[in-house]
Task: inverse folding
């Protein structure tokens, strides 16, 4: 856990937290949508532009070598961060969305009419629509794991969905709306018992809890740098080497080839086979700084701090008349979604913004989940390393005040 002086020094790294909105100090509670970036990350971008900018894996000149070394050093840092077996299993993408689309498009090649995919009710649209896109042409059936009112899956109900036709499972590690930490290790073991590979959407897990892909034994794992105090435009797909080796390339272009002629082309080895074109090497350099930042603070300390904030916010919010919190799972991380009576989430969000509080409102890219709870939208407060208990108290008082206006 961080004490007050530690939090204060953390906050010094984020100039944006000194901003005022409508004359009031900004309280940023939308880290689950995008985390703010500390100075070390922004400095890394500037340093790359001013001192090392050059295309990677191409030039023999010094700058190109430096940029290449930096990208490959970051790949190793990512490997260590999630405990993958090899850097060949770490593919840089534009984000979680592109990582999932890559797997859906290339692994999806081999699916046939009548094959089935299992998803959960709480998936982000990024982990629903790519699977529907392959299903469009082929009549792939999507089967959905139900959840209870607390926002938890039941392992027996999940296992009941497996049939002879099940070919793939894709599920969120942590829900971006409910905060539920799913029992992914158990769910992966069940899928493997049925011979089915699993992709884990880790967009909300990688910033908040320790991830070990070898312990989980997942086949694929996807996450985004911008939710981890890093830059926009960079993400990661982890895939087991033998799985990636059997998949065809996603996009064609420079970088991903071995030899090209107009008759036939051979592809580069992993991971480059899946990295067509010039990568966002500036973003990758900044991601490296973000990983150092998280490692220095310690992911366990970050998790403990955020957990304490969520617990305290939950306790205080429940003192408000008509408060309904969605997502009360035993294992939860990072976010609280709620409604007060029948007050529209958008109206509440607008008024909270006038008081300086940045929250997310609406369907949170999870319309099937909204339908499950019978609502159009929710208000979501999400937390990061820089949030304080004082902000939590001020937020709860603001919600109380706004609620009293309706
Ligand atoms: C944010 C998020 C995504 C999409 O991430 P992008 O960075 O927008 O590609 C996918 N799944 C979950 C659970 C998310 O929170």
Result:
């Amino acid at each position: 856990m961080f004490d007050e002086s530690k939090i204060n020094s953390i906050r010094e790294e984020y100039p944006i937290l000194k901003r005022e909105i409508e004359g009031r100090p900004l309280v940023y509670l939308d880290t689950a949508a995008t985390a703010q970036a500390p100075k070390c990350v922004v400095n890394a971008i500037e340093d790359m532009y001013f001192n090392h900018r050059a295309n990677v894996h191409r030039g023999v000149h010094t700058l190109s070598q430096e940029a290449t070394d930096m990208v490959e050093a970051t790949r190793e840092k990512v490997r260590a961060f999630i405990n993958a077996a090899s850097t060949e299993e770490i593919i840089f993408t534009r984000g979680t969305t592109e990582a999932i689309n890559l797997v859906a498009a290339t692994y999806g090649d081999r699916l046939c009419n009548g094959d089935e995919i299992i998803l959960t009710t709480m998936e982000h649209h990024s982990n629903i629509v790519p699977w529907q896109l392959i299903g469009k042409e082929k009549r792939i059936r999507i089967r959905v794991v139900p959840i209870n009112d607390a926002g938890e899956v039941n392992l027996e109900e999940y296992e009941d969905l497996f049939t002879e036709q099940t070919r793939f499972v894709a599920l969120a590690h942590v829900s971006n709306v409910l905060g539920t930490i799913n029992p992914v290790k158990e769910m992966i073991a069940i899928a493997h018992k049925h011979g089915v590979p699993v992709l884990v959407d880790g967009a909300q897990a990688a910033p908040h809890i320790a991830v070990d892909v070898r312990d989980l034994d997942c086949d694929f794992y996807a996450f985004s740098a911008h939710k981890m105090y890093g830059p926009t435009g960079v993400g990661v797909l982890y895939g087991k080497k033998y799985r990636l080796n059997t998949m065809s390339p996603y996009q064609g272009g420079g970088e991903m080839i071995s030899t090209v002629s107009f008759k036939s082309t051979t592809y580069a080895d992993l991971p480059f086979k899946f990295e067509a074109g010039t990568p966002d090497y500036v973003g990758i350099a900044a991601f490296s700084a973000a990983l150092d930042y998280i490692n220095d603070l310690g992911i366990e300390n970050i998790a403990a701090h955020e957990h304490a904030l969520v617990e305290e916010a939950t306790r205080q919010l429940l003192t408000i008349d008509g408060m309904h919190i969605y997502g009360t799972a035993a294992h939860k991380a990072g976010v609280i979604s709620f409604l007060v009576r029948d007050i529209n989430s958008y109206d509440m969000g607008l008024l909270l913004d006038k008081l300086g509080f940045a929250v997310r409102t609406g369907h949170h890219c999870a319309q099937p989940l909204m339908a499950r709870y019978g609502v159009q939208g929710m208000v979501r407060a999400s937390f990061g390393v820089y949030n304080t208990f004082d902000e939590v108290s001020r937020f709860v008082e603001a919600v109380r005040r706004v609620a009293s206006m309706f």
Observations:
- The CA atoms of residues 93 and 287 lie 12 Å apart.
- The longest helix spans residues 62-82.
- The chain is about 40% helix and 15% strand.
- The chain has a mean pLDDT of 96.
